[in-house]
C-alpha cells in the first residue's frame, strides 16, 4: 500500500479470484467456466469486429440489447449491459444502497458482495444460512428500505429458492430494491425475470460467463423495470459509457442467436452434474443438491483443504474456501463427462478407494 | 430516475459521449478515433482468442503487462491495465482522493473528471485556464495534500505543458498524488513516464484508444511506482478483477509488438493536423496549437454550433461543447488526408468561400 491510499478504503479486502496457475496444464474445475467453447457463429462475429477496433463501441449497445430483449421477452429499456455481471452488481450497489438503505445478504454467498459494500462504504448485514445451507426467505421479509441481495441459486452452495419465496421478498419490501443474482440460473432454476412486470423494486442480474461460454469476453446484464434500469444507465454513463467492447458485444448478440446450442450445453452439464453428484455420494461424500454448474461437497474421510491439495498435485483444480462453516467443502465445477470421470477416479484414488462404485 | 435512486448521487450528471448516429454514413471527426484500422497482427491475435472465450481472462494480464513494461522501459509491477483509461482514472480517484485530499483540475478539460468526482463524492476545485487556454502550472504548485489531475495534452484545447512544469508540480506537492492523463501523448508531447522513478506521487495514465487504433477494444493503463500501482490493483480486485477481456488483452499485446506501425500512423496524423491547421487558418479560423489528434478551432465568421450543425447536415460530424468560454469552438478529429480535405472544402463551402487557398 502506498502512503497515498485513501483512508476511506482502510477496511477494503479485495476479492480473490480462483487461481489460474501456469506451471502445468490442469483440468480446471475451479472457476465455474463452461467446458464447451463458444459456437462458431460467436467466434466469427467477434473476429469480424476485430478489424473495426479503431472505432468506439456503441455506448447504447443497441443491437445486443434488442436481441436480448427479444430472447427474454422484455422491452429494450428494461435491460442494461455491463462488463461482466460483477459490474452490474457494483452499479446496483452504487445506485440503490447507502446509509439509509443498507445491504442485506446471506452470510455465505458470492464473496464479492461484502467487497462491493466496503468499496462503496455501504453498511451491510450478513444473515446466517439455515443449518442445511439453504437461504431462509423468512429472514428477508419486511426489512423496511434495506437493499437485499440474494444469489439464486446461491454460491458456493448451489442451492436455489423457489420463485414464490422471491416474490414474497419483493412484495414485503416495497421500499427497498431486491437484487436477485442469477449467474447460474440456466442450470435448472426458475428465473425471476417473470416477476419484473409486477415489482418495480426487483432487479435481476445474469451473466454470459457460465451458460453462454463467454467468461473471457466479460458480459453481464441487469433486467428490471425501465426506471430502475435508467438509474443503472446513469451510473454506467458516469463510470464507463463504453464499458462493453465491440467484440464482446458482437459475441454476445451471436450467442443469443445461437441460444439453442447453449441451452443444450446446459442440459449436458446438468446430466454431468447428476453423474458427479451420484458418484461422489457413492464415495461417501455429502453433496448439496446443486442447481448450478458446480457441486459443493465434503467427506468425513478427508479434509477440504487436504482434498483440494491432493487433487491439485494430480492435475485437477477445484476451489477451496478457507472460511468458517465451509472449510470442509470443495466447490467443484462441472465439466465434460470425461473430466468428471477423471475427477471421480482421482478422488477415489486419493481416498485409497480403488474400486469406486 | 426511479424512487430508489440513492440520494448520495443526487448531483450526478453523467458524461455525454460523442454522438454515434446511425441515420447515415458520416465522416466521423467527433470522437477522436484513429482513421487507421488495427494492424493485421492485432486483428489476428484478437480473433484467435475468440475461440477460447469460455475461459476467464488472466486477471494479472501477465503477457500484456510484460510486453508493455518492455516497451515503456519500466518494471511490470509499475503498470496496471484497465477497461479503457476512464477506468484507471476512476480507480485513481477512488484510491487517492477523498475529503482530506480533494481533487484539483483545470476548469476546461476532459469532461469525465467532475463526473468521477461526483460519483465518488469527492470534493473538487476547478482552476480556470489562462486566457490563451493554456494550463498555468503555477496554479498547481504547493497545494498541500490535494490530488491534482491534468490532461497533458489537455482536451479539448489540444495544448500541452512542458515536462519541466509537470516535474515542478510533482516536486512541490509531495503529499498529494499528481495524475497526468496522457490519452493524447503520442501525437507530439513528451511523456511524464520518464519522471516516475523520481516521484512516488506521480501516476501517468494512457490509452490504446487513440494512437493504437483500439477505441472499440477498451484498453487503458496507468504507470507509476509499484506502491501506487499496488493500490490501483487493490481497487481493481475490489471492482472487476477480470476487467480486461481475453480478446482485448491479446489485441493490446499485438499492438505493442507492432509499435512501429502505430507510431508511423501518429506521424501521418500529425502531418494531417499541420495541413488542417494551416487550411483552417487560411479560412480565417483561430486554431489552437494542437499536440493531439484533433484541433480546436473557431471563426468570427460563423458560430460554433452553427458550423457544427452545418457540417452534420453535410455528412461530417465534429464535436461541439455547449459550455461557457468554448461554445464558439469545435473540436475536430484529425482523420486521413482525404477526410481533412473534404472537411476543409465543406467548411469553405459553408462559409460561401468558394476559393479556399
Sequence of strands across the biggest β-sheet of chain A: 2-8-7-6-5-3-4
- What is the overall pLDDT average of chain A? 96
Number of alpha- plus pi-helical segments of chain A:
10
Through-space gap between termini of chain A: 52 Å
What do you see in this structure?
2 copies of one chain form a homodimer. The model of chain A has no long low-confidence stretch (mean pLDDT 96). Chain A has helices at 40-50, 62-72, 85-96, 112-119, 163-172, 226-236, 246-257, 259-282, 304-313, 337-350; strands spanning 27-28, 79-82, 103-106, 124-127, 147-151, 178-181, 202-207, 220-224, 285-287, 294-299, 316-317, 330-333. Chain A is an alpha/beta fold and 357 residues long. In chain A, α1 (40-50) runs antiparallel to α7 (246-257). In chain A, the strands form 3 sheets. Chain A has a 7-stranded mixed sheet with strand order 2-8-7-6-5-3-4, with helices on both faces. In chain A, strands 9-10-12 form a 3-stranded antiparallel sheet. The first copy, chain A, starts with 26 loop residues before the first strand and ends in a 7-residue tail after the last helix. Chains A and B meet through α1, α3, α4, α6 and α7 of A and α1, α3, α4, α6 and α7 of B.
Task: Give the structure's gist in a few sentences.
2 copies of one chain form a homodimer. By secondary structure, chain A is an alpha/beta fold.
